[in-house]
Amino acid sequence: MHLSPMVQTFALHFGEMGSRWGISRTVGQMYAVLFASPEPMNADQIVEALGVSRSNVSMGLKELQTWNLVHLKHLPDDRREYFTTPDDIWEIVRNLAEERKKREVDPTLSLLRDVMMQNPTSEADKYAQARMGEMHDLIEQLTGWYDDVQKLETERLIALLTLGSKVQKILEMKDRLTLLPGSKPSGETARGRKEARKDTA
Amino acid sequence: MHLSPMVQTFALHFGEMGSRWGISRTVGQMYAVLFASPEPMNADQIVEALGVSRSNVSMGLKELQTWNLVHLKHLPDDRREYFTTPDDIWEIVRNLAEERKKREVDPTLSLLRDVMMQNPTSEADKYAQARMGEMHDLIEQLTGWYDDVQKLETERLIALLTLGSKVQKILEMKDRLTLLPGSKPSGETARGRKEARKDTA
DNA sequence: CATTAGTTTCAGAAATTACTGAAATTACAG
DNA sequence: CTGTAATTTCAGTAATTTCTGAAACTAATG
After folding, report:
1. pLDDT for res A168
2. Is A193 in Cβ contact with B132 (below 8 Å)?
3. How far is CA A65 from the centre of its chain?
4. What span, in angstroms and rounded, lies between the C-alpha atoms of A167 and A181?
5. How far B50 CA sits from the closest chain A CA (Å)?
6. Chain centre distance of CA B93
7. What is the pTM of this model?
8. A160-194, pLDDT tens digit by residue?
9. Hey, are the CB atoms on A22 and B20 less than 8 Å from each other?
10. At CA B193, angle to CA A88 and CA B143, rounded to 5?
11. B199 exposed, middle or buried (CB, 10 Å; 0-12, 13-18, 19+)?
């Protein structure tokens, strides 16, 4: 590995983490190196940096591209391909979430929906089905929130996260205010959803 | 596999998903079976259900326990150990998140903090360090939100998620109201954070 | 259109991870 | 204690995943 100690530490750790999240160690390291590099890098520079085979880098880059985690660049008077990571780190998180949703969450939801259509052949199956219904609803709840929030610009998203559960306080406050003209309390929407669940189960 | 077609479908899919998230196929299947079972199950029942070796189940159960994903039960007049998954499915998500945070996020934060203390030996390192700083801040932002929200009871959490980005609307509304007495707009906290970032970079 | 730089593919090798059966351990009952 | 049921450990094997080098492909260059 021809890397400064700092980047090396980072790359090794990131590779380790990658391997716990379904990405191979080397691909994780490759991403770390690209992420930390001030300039776009070509495949040979990555080979140089990590001491792995050229073909391995080629495959890794291909994988990173399918995850939308790197951008392809071309430098003038150089026909090699250069790669970078997005400048806005939140974009990275968004792309990652988007891709995992597409690959893992959506198929799971679809399978759970299918199962909900079948009719159970035993008491145990009936229970299993109800349980899967719970899981289906939970995933929908989470992805619904995600879809909603995903659209926000980085600035707004950060504001929302910083707020965290303090929203509750503001909601109460809003309730106190809006209750005056006799409108519905804001907990309503959530409770409505919960009730819907029971019909399905 | 001695399972109803419904649970079998579920278990196979869940095993597949598990393997993409750093859990072995079999452990994923084991969890699916436990999750879908109306009654607590003992190790031999899982062996029976999935057709894997007894020792494999033993190890799998141990792993699930280290993740806090199963509860141990004892039935009267039976000294075998029985296992269940929590009734509240949100508890499962919480435990999972908690454990992953402990194992992956916290060490990463700690490493990033260490790197921030070092002094860079080159321009490239300087950039790398700034980049890691961005990552550090992002993770802290996310885990801060998580820590905050994690404490909420299931009901409240669902309400919050259902609200999603609509909070923004309410914030604006709140701003309009609280601006009257001349107090600060609520975007403040987030923007303050962002500025802090730049000092570090 | 031949040469060459750059990239990808792919079959087999290497490394890692998962699984098994046998032996060891634990923990309870008589 | 002794015997037995339940569980765990672990060394070896099987299966899977990752990685490599050689060959094939692609496309720009003179």
Report:
1. 75
2. no
3. 16
4. 22
5. 16
6. 6
7. 0.86
8. 898 887 877 776 776 676 666 554 444 444 333 33
9. yes
10. 75
11. exposed
